[in-house]
Every structure is written in C-alpha cells, then in structure tokens.
Write a structure and sequence with these properties.
By secondary structure, the chain is mostly helical. It has eight helices and four strands. Helix 2 runs parallel beside helix 8, helix 4 packs across helix 5 and helix 4 crosses helix 6. The chain is globular, with a radius of gyration of 23 Å.
Length: about 210
C-alpha cells in the first residue's frame, strides 16, 4: 500500500507539471499575441479603412464605383457634435470617462440579460467595438472578448477620445452596405453627415 501511495503521488506530481507547463505555454502565447496586437495598435496612427474607388469620365462625372465596403471617409471636424452625442448616449454613455472597458456596463448588461432571459444588451464600449471591427474575427467566444478588452485598453493608451470616436464613426457598419456615418447619411437621408439635424442623427445612432 505504501508503494501504491508513492506511485499515485508521482503520477499526480507529473500531471501537475504537465498542467503547469500547458498553462505557462498558453500565457506565453497570449502575451506574444498581445505584443503583436500592440504593434498593430501603434500602426493605427496611419490607419485608412477600405474606401470606395470612383471611376470618372472625361467630364469629371462618376460613372462607376468599386468597393468591398461602401465607405466615404469624413474628417472629425465635419462630424456634428450632436451626432457624436447620439452614439455615445445609445452605445456607451460613459465613453468619456472609462479606460476602454467599463466594468459597470458589463455588470449592468449581465443583470439585464439574466432578468430578461435573453441577450438584450451588450457590455462593450465604443472602444471595444472599434477593437472588434478592426482587430478580431468577430466570432463570439470568450477568447475574442478577452482579446478585445486588452486591445481596447491599448487603444485608449494610444489615442485620445476624439481620435477613437473618429475611427469608430468612419468604421462602423450601419446597414444596407453602408460603412461609416458619411456613407450612411447619404444613403438614408441624401445628405452629407455635417448636414444632419438632431433627429436624423439620433435615428442614425440606433442602427448599430
């Protein structure tokens, strides 16, 4: 019985070593992935989303558009303040105050979803949504959410709130093949984004 106990102890010790090795390897791999992601976040300074290629005739009139994502970039100063506030109110009311991740928002969404019995609200911040759209494969998984949160924090360290909002509003999908608020404004209202009134801005902000 003494030898049996020794054998069991050896097996447990060996198994423990294997488990520790696997966990350590996973942490090292995740750390390497984060370093790559941090390098990519650094490059976001020169980030240019996919835009429409327009073909003009000899008179300067557009006769065709080529695109994978229909998007027209718009400078931040041309995006109305009331449009920004509409997105903040609906998507991330504490955008100006958090550091990329909002623990209170996550807990609030958890309780709302538990009491409703279905997914009614997400806990992602605007910065996390930007991280998901640019850096992840968007597949629903715990790994993706963890990675998304880390990248969101990196984005907050690298960019100002206005820069994050600018990237987000030019990146986000707003239905019917329209990416970014300028393309969506033209599709839904036949206006440039800077021409939208408060009601139109509020409607646009509900689309995500």
């Amino acid at each position: 019985s003494k030898q049996l106990a020794v054998d069991i102890f050896d097996k447990v010790r060996n198994s423990k070593g294997i488990i520790i090795g696997i966990i350590s390897g996973a942490f090292i791999a995740f750390f390497i992935i984060l370093l790559v992601d941090f390098s990519n976040v650094q490059k976001m300074t020169n980030y240019k989303p996919n835009v429409v290629t327009k073909l003009y005739d000899k008179n300067g009139i557009v006769f065709a558009e080529l695109f994978k994502q229909k998007r027209d970039l718009v400078p931040f100063e041309k995006i109305p303040e009331h449009l920004q506030q509409a997105f903040i109110a609906i998507e991330d009311s504490e955008f100006k105050n958090h550091w990329g991740v909002n623990p209170k928002g996550i807990v609030r969404a958890l309780f709302i979803n538990l009491f409703s019995g279905k997914i009614k609200q997400g806990g992602s911040t605007i910065t996390q949504q930007l991280a998901k759209n640019v850096f992840t494969d968007r597949k629903r998984s715990i790994y993706r959410k963890i990675k998304e949160a880390f990248i969101a924090v990196m984005l907050e360290m690298k960019f100002t709130k206005n820069e994050i909002m600018h990237l987000y509003l030019n990146q986000i999908y707003l239905g019917h093949g329209a990416y970014g608020v300028e393309t969506a404004a033209q599709f839904y209202f036949k206006k440039h984004v800077w021409e939208l009134n408060v009601a139109e801005s509020a409607l646009l902000a509900t689309l995500p």
